[in-house]
UniProtKB/TrEMBL annotation:
HAMAP family: Q_tRNA_Tgt. Its cofactor is Zn(2+). It catalyses: 7-aminomethyl-7-carbaguanine + guanosine(34) in tRNA = 7-aminomethyl-7-carbaguanosine(34) in tRNA + guanine. The keyword Cell membrane does not apply. Pfam families: TGT. Its EC number is 2.4.2.29. The keyword Magnesium does not apply. Residues 252-258 are annotated as: RNA binding. The active site is at D89, D271. Zn(2+) binds at C309, C311, C314, H340. Catalyzes the base-exchange of a guanine (G) residue with the queuine precursor 7-aminomethyl-7-deazaguanine (PreQ1) at position 34 (anticodon wobble position) in tRNAs with GU(N) anticodons (tRNA-Asp, -Asn, -His and -Tyr). Catalysis occurs through a double-displacement mechanism. The nucleophile active site attacks the C1' of nucleotide 34 to detach the guanine base from the RNA, forming a covalent enzyme-RNA intermediate. The proton acceptor active site deprotonates the incoming PreQ1, allowing a nucleophilic attack on the C1' of the ribose to form the product. One of its GO terms (molecular function) is metal ion binding. This is Queuine tRNA-ribosyltransferase.
């Protein structure tokens, strides 16, 4: 299912083959938490923004509209009119983000819904059943994401429990597919590496989950409080124990610079809410650095957000116009900015792939990294 085409150092150029199409890697997954990108972006828009994979969230879709509703309507692809691959996050991140509303046991996690407070239980089996109803291309195993810094003993117990949960996830998803109740009979399962910022826990966890020969492997529990240097160190430690012939996913990361650095360390796919979230607050990424379109200096600026960009926004609208839209609190400001940022991220991945194809990734990394991370 994953073809490793070539390498430059540890950076990998690959192709992930799925029932919903092929994904050229390295790739960025655009985050459509509730089956839509926040900011008024539809699945039809995503095609024009070079999106290869959409990421949706198991917990949120279970609450609203309900995974059984989506199953009865033909599955997530049909529901949101997106024909390319979809990855569903297992709900494990909500174990972290809703820490004040949950209780963790060996069986799973008891939640209070962030919408109406009703009690919810989700464990490995429940997560797999929900994702089977959604029919995503890739299902993520249910795990616990621990905030950094974490106490060693808690991180160890959590990592060990995440491994036990992974075995239960695999068994349940295999059963659901064998029984013919999964919307997508070819649904893939990715395991998640955990262990906070402790090298020995991370390595032990990765060795054990690699034994399951899953469809792919993710590094989770990063970008949740540790420094960028600590994050790169953990990736560096774990990467050598990740199967070479399986796709590698760094969850929830990150800035364009984070992505370039992680690619250099051997990561294949990424996701992050940053491009859409920042855009909704007028922060946009360009090939010259980061801009805040709320700044007064853009009031009469007739240039596009980025003269080097050919996204729909940059082809048709000026900084002055988008600045005005934000000041007037028009929804169009968010839509145009989100479109630009997603296009920028997807174009960044395309440029990385091209550089790997040409054997010039290291040169690209040196030339681009410093520019795109600075604040204009």
């Amino acid at each position: 299912m994953f073809e490793l085409i070539k390498m430059e150092g540890r950076a990998r150029r690959g192709r992930l083959k799925t029932v919903h199409g092929e994904v050229e890697t390295p790739a960025f997954m655009n985050v459509a938490t509730s089956a839509a990108i926040k900011g008024g972006i539809s699945a039809l828009d995503l095609v024009g923004l070079k999106c290869q994979v959409a990421l949706c969230n198991t917990y949120h879709l279970h609450l609203r509209p309900g995974d059984e509703v989506i199953r009865d309507l033909g599955g997530l692809h049909k529901f949101m009119n997106w024909q390319r691959p979809i990855l569903t996050d297992s709900g494990g991140f909500q174990v972290f983000s809703l820490s004040s509303l949950r209780k963790i046991t060996e069986e799973g996690v008891h939640f209070a819904s962030h919408i109406d407070g009703r009690r919810i239980f989700m464990g490995p089996e429940e997560s797999m059943r929900i994702q089977a109803n959604l029919g995503s291309t890739i299902a993520m195993a249910f795990d616990e994401c621990v905030a950094n810094p974490a106490e060693y003993e808690y991180a160890k117990k959590s990592s060990e429990r995440t491994i036990r949960w992974l075995y239960r996830c695999k068994e349940e998803l295999d059963r659901l597919k064998a029984d013919g109740v999964a919307v997508n009979k070819e649904q893939m399962l990715f395991g998640i590496n955990q262990g906070a910022t402790y090298d020995d826990l991370r390595i032990d966890n990765m060795k054990k989950i690699a034994e399951l020969d899953l469809d792919g492997y993710a590094i989770g529990g990063l970008a949740v409080g540790e420094s960028a240097e600590e994050m790169y160190h953990i990736i560096d430690c774990v990467e050598q124990y990740m199967p070479q012939n399986k796709v590698r996913y760094l969850m929830g990361v990150g800035t364009p610079l984070n992505i370039i650095e992680a690619v250099s360390l051997g990561v294949d796919i990424f996701d992050c809410v940053m491009p859409s979230r920042n855009a909704r607050h007028a922060h946009v990424f360009t090939w010259s650095g980061k801009r805040n379109l709320m700044n007064a200096k853009y009031e009469r600026d007739t240039l596009p957000i980025d003269p080097e960009c050919d996204c729909p926004t940059c082809r048709n609208f000026s900084r002055a116009y988008i600045h005005h839209l934000f000041k007037a609190q028009e929804m169009l400001a968010m839509r145009l900015s989100v479109m630009h940022n997603l296009y920028f991220y997807n174009t960044l991945m395309q440029k990385i792939r091209n550089a790997l194809d040409n054997g010039t990734f290291n040169e690209f990394r040196k030339r681009v990294s410093e520019k795109i991370d600075k604040r204009i």
